[in-house]
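Subject: for your reference before the review

Hello V.,

The reviewers asked for a structural picture of the protein, and I figured it would be easier to keep everything in one thread rather than splitting it across files. Below is the amino acid sequence we used in the manuscript, unchanged from the supplementary table.
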Amino acid sequence: MSERRRSTDGPQAERNSARAVITASVLAGVSAVIVGLITGLGSTLQDAVTDALSGDGKPAAAAPQDGTSAAPASPRPEPAVPVKVAVIPEGGGTFLVSEHRVSGAADTYAVTHGDVAPEEWNSLLRRIRATSINKTAYKIAVTNVSSSPVRVVDVVPVITRRSGALRATMIEPLGGEAEDSVPVQLDLDKRSPAFTQAGKPYFSRTSQVLKAGEGFVMAVEAKLLGKEYVEYHLRVDYLDAKGEQRSLQVKEPDTPVGVFRVSGLVDDTEYADFWGPDEEGRGRRLYSREERN
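And here is what came back from the structure prediction:
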């Protein structure tokens, strides 16, 4: 298990790049989860995540020029929720499915020319609620934005839908597959799934104590191998400064492909529409049922 706390060294360019990504996620209303596969991310990324969420790293106010002492700063009010969470989806291609079919000239153009029409492609994925097959992977940044310590004691996946695997549309990727993460895992095939490490519940063995301004970054891999479809959100349980247990409900972030939903795989011939690579491998076309065998 690898975890890294805040550090003051590291390349400034990496910090600025990571800060831009996380700040954009936060400003877009992306609030997500704690959970999953612990990763060995660099401390510079963690610093940038924490800075973006807590406001650290801003330049200090200039001192008065007349030689007088600066007035003491007014204390900032405590936030209503001391824990902030942001999600960063993993990159890479993946097989996508949907319970909706691609229709209309604009959507057909987007699915056949996804690589050269990224805006239209992402709009299509949102409209049809595109879903990954078998697994999703993403990184989570958790930060204490209050002035008092908090203890994160559990993260509970809350299943909101479990049904048969999606069968309306299958879309094959044109690029490479996303890289695998290292476990802590979430097995969505189980009726009451929990985050585990080496087969044991992760949060029953450890918890995270975060001092003011501290945070940590984790990676998540959620798997679903059966012929089902699952949607969920997360509940983050923590103890506040008074020792009282609180919970933060974390909904799915607004991304083109769903993060908190996964579908199992069915036989290729069972999909109403199957979009696969064309002869040149630069776009997609509809496959007949005979071509799918």
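For the response letter, the relevant points are probably these. The chain is about 15% helix and 30% strand. Residues 12-27 form the longest helix (16 residues).

Happy to draft the paragraph if you're swamped.

O.
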